[in-house]
Each structure stands twice: as structure tokens, then as C-alpha cells.
Amino acid sequence: MSVSNEVMSNDVLERQRRVRRTTWWLVAVALVFYVGFIVMSVSSSHG
Amino acid sequence: MSATHSHQDAHADHGHDHEHDDHHGPMKGIKRWLYATNHKDIGSMYLIFSLVMFLTGGLMAMFIRAELLKPGMQILDPQTFNSMTTMHALIMVFGAVMPAFTGLANWMIPLQVGAPDMALPRMNNFSFWILPFAFSLLLLTLLVPGGSPAGGWTLYPPLVLQTGNAFPMAIFAVHMMGASSIMGAINVIVTIMNMRAPGMTLLKMPLFTWTWLITAYLLIAVMPVLAGAVTMLLTDHYFGTSFFNAAGGGDPVMFQHIFWFFGHPEVYIMILPAFGVVSEIIPTFSRKPLFGYDAMVYATASIAFLSFIVWAHHMFTTGMPLVGEMFFMLSTMLIAIPTGVKVFNWTATMWKGSLSFETPMLFSLAFLFLFTIGGFSGLMLAIAPADFQYHDTYFVVAHFHYVLVPGAIFSIMAAVYYWLPKWTGHMYNEKLGKLHFWLSTIFVNVLFFPQHFLGLAGMPRRIPDYSTQFADWNFVSSIGGFCFGLTQLLFVYIIWSTARGGVKASDKVWDSASPQGLEWTVASPAPYHSFDVPPEVK
User: Taking an 8 Å Cβ-Cβ cutoff, which residues of chain A contact chain B?
Assistant: First the structure.
């Protein structure tokens, strides 16, 4: 593999890593809002 | 912004190295759509789906206006009338407006940021294909014994808990819509943050992409909140919990707080991309760059932030403390500032511009005037003591329809006319486009403006019958509604005939206006694969 191909594939891999990292962060944020609001509702009930 | 990149090239895909099979064309037949991962195919499916939903929700609106044409009960029983208002709203919000903007995002964001596709193409396919199932399920509730949900799109308990067997179907449908929206939003953010062409810094992005980035963050924050709220409704109904049941220690008003924590940002989810569309079109047909680009970005972000701290202005009459009313009244009024910045900047963009009035520009101008009317009536509703009078009247119906129809929907129509030649390679018929514009603009006002008078005179919303003093303006409103509905068949015809053929569109499409942006550097129709080689943005 030539040097430029190596550089390119590193770029591609790095981009894939960034895509995966951003995706999981956003999934985590969505889950925090989902669970967080249910937990908040439980704690504000007076049963 | 300028792009150095030859005319893509994208056709080049068939010319070069075929070591991998990732440069193939579309699959044949139904598989192309079922297994679609191409952002343009998925964008088209979203747009067609939203058009079908627009017609379905519109048909329900026709039933509503037919019932309200004159006093007395005509064609619907009260339960069916309430089902119609509830389903009309759910279908228009989640089935028509949101998927239309997601379709535009799918088509345009990769083209505007110079990316070959969305970052997560398989998830893109999944997020679209959930929708037909979600809406089939929702529409099937009309056939279930006990009828479909009829307590309004806000699904307030305890009323909504009286729904029959349709209840879990509707809740599951809402969950699926939410999941689809969250996946779509994740895709948009990941694409914009990671797939921009070299040199495309954040503050060089087109405004449509910017507004969608901010909208996507709103979606990720609030759609799970809606999902949480309806999950709790479900457990209250079937598993004996008492989240919203006062007898068990719960609080039905808490549902309203949670719902509107989702519901108000949802309003901006439906309008921020509209701001983006108008911010693309007005500069093109003014032949000037957008006035105050940075201010537009910051104003959009400010509106998004403020949308999280205004939710209880929907609940002034629930009896909250005075300090709460003051807070939510003032925070709501603050939204007028960044919105005013936007209206000022659009106007300043046109100032001394060399204007021309093609159909997309006409719809954008109508947006500017009519959305502002909706904004002003919103300001009136924000005043807590006045809201006690307006609350749950037709004034509210007039307000949010001005924001959503000549606001969000007109911007979607403007976007379709603006980018349709890029999608299909054909120019639409300008005369028919202008006819569609003028009929829509006249009849949308005949339909909704009288509803201000009805509301101020005290006519409540969500009623199938009314006192005779409301008869005249209801008659006018219904006639406007029928004519507006019929006019939209012309829109369908224009899209259909443009997709089938017509005068060939150039690559720039709006040549005399020299539109800016990477989407105009690709061929018309946009090739199946674009930006295989990332363009350099200077």
C-alpha cells in the first residue's frame, strides 16, 4: 500500500471512529432524557 | 463560499475504479425502495410519504370544516368529530410536517455540506420504514371498537384514558414516530459534524443545514420526553401505576408539564427548518447574500434555547403561582427578539436587491408576512391575563394554524419549488406554480383569519356544534377550507407532471439569480452518487 493510501485509510478509520463516537453520545443523551423524565415523575408522585 | 470542483463527477462514478461495488446504481424495482440507503431515494420517500399524509390529514380537516359549515349537527357524531380533530393534528404534525422536513434534510444536507451520503445510511432506511407502520397503526384505530383517540393531540389524562382498545395502538404509534425522529436527528447531527467537505467550517454552512443541526438537537432532547410521557400513560392504564392519577397520589397536571416540555420545542422543530428554507430562497431571488448570516445562526440557537423555558405558557389556566405565570410570560415574550432579528434580516436582504418573484420567492414572501401574523397572535397569547380570555378558543386555533400552514407548510412548498428542478432535472410550470401560490395564499387567509374573530367572540375550540352568533364566520372559514384543500390537488399535479417531464433544468437552475451553495454545483437531476471526491470549499 502506498503512503497516500495509508494516510487515506487512516483518515477513513478516524472518520468512522468519530461517527461511531458521536452516534453513541447522542443515543446516550436520548436515553438520559427518556429515563430521567420517568424517574423525575416517580419522585414527584406522593403515593 | 465557492467550491472548486468540477461538475461532479458523480457521474464519474461509473468511469473509475470498480474494485468495490459501492459505486453501483440503484437496484431495480421495489428493492430500490425497500433496501434504500441512498440519501436521495430516502429523501424522496419521506417527501412522498409526507404528501400522502398531508392529503390524509387534509381530508380530515375537510370533514371538520364540513361539520362546522353551519350550526347544528350535520355529518359527524361528536365522538367522530373529536377523533377527526385529534387524528388530523397527529397526522399533520408527525406525518406531514416533520417527515417533509426530514425528506428535505435527507436530500439537501449531504449536497449542501459536500458529503457523499448521510453518515448512517442503514439507520436512515430504518427510520423511514418505521413511519408507514406507525401511521397505518394510527389510522387503523379509526376502525377499532370505541373509536380512535379523541381527547386532542395533547393526549391529556384522564380524558385520553377513556379511549377504548385503540389506546395502546395509538401509544405504540407515537413511540414509533418518536423512534423514527430520534434516529433521523442522530443521522443529521452525525452527518453534519463528521462528513463536511474540507474547508466547510460550521460558519460557512448554508442556513438550511444550520437550522436543521439545531432542530436535530431539539429532537434528541424532547422526543424521548414524549416517549416517557406516553409510556407512563400506558402503565397508568394497564399496570396500575398512578403517575397521573390523583386518586393514587399522582398528578394529571404533571402530564401537562411533561407534555409541553416536549410540545413547545416541537413547535420550533416544525419552524426552524422553515426559517432555513426561507433563508436560502430570499437571498437567491434578491440576488444578494443573506444579511447578517452570523446573527441568523445565533438567533436560531437562541430560539432553540428559549424553547425549553417557555412550556408552561400553554398552561396559564391550570392555576400556577403568580411568579410562575410572570416567568413564563416574560420568557415567552423574549422569543420575539431573535425572531424579530430574523424577520429584520430577511427584509434587509431584500433591501435594494434585484428582486424577482418566481414561485419559491412568492411562497417565501407569504411566509414572511403570514408567519409574522401568527407570531404576533402568539405574543398576544403570551400575556397571561389576556390568555385567560383566549385560552381554548378559536383564537388559539387561528394562531397556531397561521404559524403552521402559511408558516411551516408554505416554506415546505417554497422548498419543493426551489429544489424540485434539481431533484427531477425538469422545470415546473411557472404559471401553474404561481396559480397554486395565489389560490393558496388567498384561501388560507379566508380559512384562518375569521377564526381570530370567532375566538375573540368566545367560540371554544374542539366543539362539533356552536351558537348561532358564530355562524357567519364559520361559513366563510369552511368555504376557505374547501377551496384551500382543492387547491392542493394542483400542487400534487405540478409535482407529478414535473417529475414526468418538462423543460430541462440547467445545473444552476436559477441561472439569472446565481444561487450559492454546493448543491448547485452538481448536475440536474442530481446524480445518484454525488461528491465521491470531496469538493474543496474556499
Answer: 15, 18-19, 22-23, 26-27, 29-31, 33-35, 37-38, 41-42, 44-47
